[in-house]
Amino acid sequence: MRLPTWLAVLVALGVLLPLPLGLRRAEAGSAITRSDVLPLEQVHRGMKGYGLTVFQGTKPERFDVEVIDVLKNFRPRQDLILIKTKHPRLEVAKVVAGMSGSPIYLNDKMVGAYAYGWTFGAEPVAGVTPIQNMLQDLVRPLPDKIDGWPLRVLPPGGKLASNELTLPRPSRGLGDPTRYDLREHASRVAAQRAVTQPSDTPLRPVATPLLVGGLTSGAVALAKDLLGPLGLEPLQAGGGGGTEPGAPQRYEDGGAIGVQLIRGDMSAMGLGTVTRVEGDRLVAFGHPMMESGVTALPTAIGKVLWFLASDMRSFKIGMPVRDVGALVNDRQASIVVSHGAKAPVVPVSMRIRGVPGLPNANWNFQIAHEKFMTPSFVAVALGSALQAIANERQDISWTAVSKLSVKDYGTLSLEDFGVAVGGTPEPGEFSRSNLVRAVGAIMNNPWKPAFIEGVSMDIELRYSREILRLRGAESLAPEVDAGQPAKLRLTFQPFSGPEVTRVISVPIPAHLAGQTLTLEITPGYSEEPEAAPPDTLEAMIKNLETQTYPPKSVVVSFSTGSPAVSFRGLVAKNLPPSALDALRPTTSSVGPDAFQSNARLVVPLSEFMVGRDKVSVKVRPVLR
Amino acid sequence: MQRSRFFFWTVLLSSLGFAAVAGAVGTRRFVLDDGADFKGGDLEGVAVDAAGGVRAGLSLGSTPVSQASTIWSALSLKDGSLLLGTGNDGKIVKVVGGTSSVVAETKALAVTSLVEGFGGKVVVGTLPEGKLFTLTGDKLAPLATLKGAEHVWQVAFDARAGVAYAATGPEGKLFRITANGDAQVYFDAEEQQLMSVAVAPDGSVYVGASDKAKLYKVTGPGRASVVYDFERTEVRSIAIAPNGDVYAIANEIKPGSQVPQRQAKTPEGQPAGPNAATPPARGKGTLFRFSKDGKPDELLQDKDEHYTTLSLGEDGRPYVGTGAEGRVYTVDQSHNSVLVADVDERQVTALLLTGQKRVVAASDPAVVHPVKGVGGADAVWTSKVLDAGIRARFGRIEWESSGTLEFSTRSGNTNEPDESWSAWSKPFTGPTRIDSPPARYLQVRARFVKDPKATLNQLSIAFVTDNLRAVLTEVKVKGADDGSSEEAVRSSGGPIAKRSDTNLNLNWKIDNPDKDELRYRLRYRLVGSNTWYELTKPDERLTKESYVWDTSDLPEGRYRVQVSASDEISNPPELVTKDELESGVVIVDNTPPVVEGLKLNGRRLSAVALDGVGPIARVEVTVAGRDDWRPVGAQDGIFDEQREEFDFDVSSILPAGPALISVRAYDAAGNFVVRSLPLK
Question: What is the ipTM, given to two decimal places?
């Protein structure tokens, strides 16, 4: 029989049956039995039972199920139980995103978690992940440390001190992490996930609904770009939530659970259902969230507001009501959450100036501390804030000065800027911002674990088009005496008003006598000062602060014809050839990097320059 | 390193009686008898002078400096320890009793200079960032940051005035620094760098510049005169003798391809990783002495290596270290130079050859070689690898020496000695037949254990290679259209190359692996005949790969030439080998073609061109007196036969009035005939 396209649907739920930690470790890798769990071998066609999920509020309710059959080896060493669900709401909604993880019971014993469904399915038929596979994830031992940081999860009922942080797992397949590009990172992570997911089969899991709130449509689109390939589908259907007084204190089987990637004035939460609670830990979803392995993402007890029925794909609308625990393991058959673990988050604050009458100039939120999620949501949040505030048709120039606090490395200052012609900056451009690149580069650095302690952004908006277009450049004298400056006249065309000219003097070293120099005129923001390739996190952070010359400047540069080297944070320019030879040993490949020296003159401007040009100057020898 | 002279002693050696010893026909010799011959191997405690003598030299120990890759400067302290200024981590390393340890880190790239001054402190110069420090014990303290300087290349201390001078770049400034760190520009040169500085006994300061290698004498603030312009790229080091003589080394080093353009980088930068290997610089060096009155005297020059450091020894002689082969030379006033040490490292970058602690400091990798003495029983000279070209049997080894030397040999078939080589032979002290097995390569070593004061002046080793057959690979005839030109298809049009006479140039190529001398014989035959005629005379000894063949007395026709190569000159009859190769067809055609039936029919010119041997190659037409020959096509469309008809409309070249039309016909050998016809 040809199966229609499978779509995984999120679910969640759980049952509590505490086990001693030692026993759980001993069970890892072997068949796990529980008295209230029905072995898969006893499941057969026609069996009837029920499931638990939250239809509204926080309390799980029953829905009936009937076994269609068992699909063998659906995933590696993982079967799938096909069931038909029976409930008035499910007759309409069919398969519902957000139900992933809902525990299914046969003969009053748990058999698995509601986890997969069909897109455009005409029947309420779903796939159930066997509970044995999920229990294997539940008892799987966790490393003591990740990236050198203590991973103190699963104290049996204990609570972690707030300063005991868990760290996300190392990035997979990121290539060269210092060359950080958020979109490249996204595509690599997505490609990695694709390897582990079933392909060319109708049984492909679909996106986890990521309920977002407080974000503009443009920011949601950016989030979709970044997170969609990972199996997370942002839906503008969630709210910021917060703690509700009557909310449950602990997770329960069949209850709603959210994985919070950002919370506060902006929010994004992956919603699913708890399958089974055992002591401090629980398993949920019945399938991976991002299949990222050992990790640490904040979780919350969820509240379901409504089942939204849709022909394409129905989903739960919900929000977090109490922050509890952390996602500590993200595996093929489930996610594992610890009540007692506390996931690190990056507090972010934004202050926006320059908008008269702005009711909310300050934004505060927390982003999950994860190598991909943190830079992604910094980009999304920055874009959303600017778009929300500057959502109009006027030209906008903006400058963002960000302070990035890195544990043990102090605070570095970064500057971003932009000019949006016709209003509303495009959120996508923030994925390439200096701040996002710095966050990504630091968190994914190849030397040591790094922890971002906080980000604060001071954004200033101006309703103007602060652009000086370089109309042209001319040398006031085509030949200059060696040692004397070359005078250049730059002509700029501002957005409004007449052309303006600026004469600048470029010092020319005497030793260049007899040469014809090509002076390159470029905007400061596109010209990078020479820096040594970083060999420590400290050196990289230092480089990050001087990524370019001041954005509002023009840089005139030319080759001095002499070699230069850089090594261990130092740059030595204008070297004689013999010194270069001495500095670069032939018996060791640990040595300075050699390149041609450039001389540069940086001239501040009142606005951002656009365009570039070249001017030739002949340097005349002076005979004395 | 120059190759050893390679002598072919063939018939001459036979006549000298070597045949009885080593099958002497084909015997050759390695002869080592000058400085270049004796260099290139391994010198342990021996020196090689330019005249070719190998004698006792500096006996060196070895202390690797693992904390650095480069030693820029060295300073001997009163307590007997040694301070090293190093790169590329800017560390100051102390060496005590064969152990090195870091005493201070400047956070600079390199500690370029260490000099004692300011009351027992050590003044430290660094690059980049133009910083000076003082070191007291192991306490490093900043002294000054020189404004306008990025690189401090050298520091000199004037004990009389109690000030230090720092030669800097890249603005070519000489700074004068006081004990409290006040720094003033003392001299501002036009050059980019001032790379060397020294203070003379009279208080004047000598500085050397780069990128134009000028030696300045600075006698006061801003008062400088050029002592000498070396017309090179840098004055690397200066040393001043107590009598006021100034020594300076200058180099010619061009920025080579090792300086790449920097690739676009990301803001974060590529993480530091292994550097790509770059070819080391190899410049030219020179050593000059200037008398007090400024008279220059070039003592030493090296066209293969540049000089990296200069120091005066206790004997008053200048010693220079080299930058490509890691050698130390000295020279006397008569310009007799001696290679006194040859270390394994690439560069000798600092020399301390006076006082109690004498060292040769080398870089790449960083190693300190304490000078243990001169010569001694441990001294060993090991030759470079001697190459026979192909496998050879080695004969008698002979030498000239002033004392008893103990020789050994070893042989192998790889150009660098490895495990496949034979072991060193048992030592011998008199001329003998080498018992190392036959092989392509040979090495000889001489130990000075019997007589540390011995001198080796000349060494010769006889060998005979396997006799391999020489193979002729090509025979070419230049000047004949034999189809053997390098271009398979020649360009069409243009005049046919003229041959001035009846000589043909025969050339051939030979692959002669054993490089023995060959004798060639030539003969020829007409195409279609099997009868060969000798071209070379029976007693003609032709050893060149070319021959001029005079064909004037030959009947015209198509010929082939055969070249025969024999190594009979170099080998006894039973070992002689031969090879033969025929040329392509050679046309001997010394008479021009004829043009018959030349006539004008209206505006059409027609005739028949005929040649006795080869095909007609080209027909041209012009108005007599002009040099504007126009090609005429064959009636059948192609010039490929001995008889070709042509018919041509001359309207396009005719002048308005009467004219004389000229026709020129070529044969394939380049002979031509001109015929004319009046046009009324």
Answer: 0.70
